[in-house]
Design brief:
The chain folds into 2 domains: 220 residues, HUPs (Rossmann fold), CATH 3.40.50; 87 residues, Tyrosyl-Transfer RNA Synthetase. It has 13 helices and 5 strands. The two termini are 34 Å apart. The strands form 2 sheets. It has a 3-stranded parallel β-sheet. A two-stranded parallel sheet has the order 4-5. It is mainly α and 340 residues long. Bound molecules: adenosine-5'-diphosphate (ADP) and sodium ion. Adenosine-5'-diphosphate binds next to helix 1.
Length: 340
Amino acid sequence: HARKTIFSGIQPTGVPHLGNYLGALQQWVRLQNEASPDTTLIYSLVDLHAITIRQDPTQLRQWKKESFAMLLAIGLDPKRSIIFHQSDVSAHAELMWILSCGASTGYLGRMTQWKDKTASSSSGSGGNLKLGLFSYPVLQAADVLIHRATHVPVGHDQAQHLEFARQVANGFNETYGGDVLLPPETLISPAKRIMSLAEPKKKMSKSHANLKSRLLLTDSDDAIRGKIKAALTDSDASLSYDPGQRPGVSNLLDILFYSGEMIDFEDQVELAKHLEGHSIKALKEKVALTVINVVAPIRADFDRLLHDEAALEAAAHDGAEKARKSAQVTLESVKKAVGL
Ligand code: ADP
Ligand code: NA
């Protein structure tokens, strides 16, 4: 069978939350643990993406360290998976420049996430929006193409960007001949989006100011109980799964389902039926217990890892070295193809 290379990334823009875990990170670990020995796994903390929005330098450095520790705490093994900070491997940015010379601004302008950001920006027309934010799908394409990734596990929100990466690869190959770049397959996460606890029509995100909107993988048992207790639901006392009409309750059922009940129930509707007769309060208590079971062991490992700075630095250094080697091969053939 053909050799696989799995690549994915997460922005070090805060402590990863339960949405990141259920929607992405959990799958990274599963792919690692189920991979055949000749599969390469590469996971990046995409700090160059993080600065598409202005960051406080001291805060960003801290988040980078914490996010690295978190990737180890969830069960990624640096002996098995290449784990690195994107900015440690300059080939990502170099390839991005070369690819951006062939990327269409029209196509980029039609990306949903860009359109959302232009629509919500105060300047309306997007006059104050930054070039890096506009072109970050090109950097994302470079991230996966530089490592000749065959499979890229992402959440639904990233599917469009991965399609762009495939088109960039095919376009490059058509222009310069041969198969210098490898269009990757997208592995869409089996979990749906986890929503904000405070505003269940918005996704749970690192970037929301309201700290009660997300469950962090570092939260104490009490913090988890408190946030879930305060989660916005509705006035209907019964339990049913209906994300359109009952986003709050349905989000709690999603969290319960993907945090453990997936093994026992076909889907969230079946799970809701099983829980019929429970009050919302009882549901919340059950969700809190289940989430605590997921988070507590991760949090304990994270606390331990974060205090061993020397080990963290050594692991990041080692990951960067391996990632540089992986990237160099592609960068050389791309430069040769272009005439550089
Ligand atoms: P965030 O939006 O919280 O800053 P990132 O952009 O760094 O997260 O995304 C990292 C990964 O986590 C991506 O694969 C993304 O699809 C996934 N992800 C982010 N938020 C959620 C969510 N609320 N539910 C499910 N998956 C999510
Ligand atoms: Na995101």
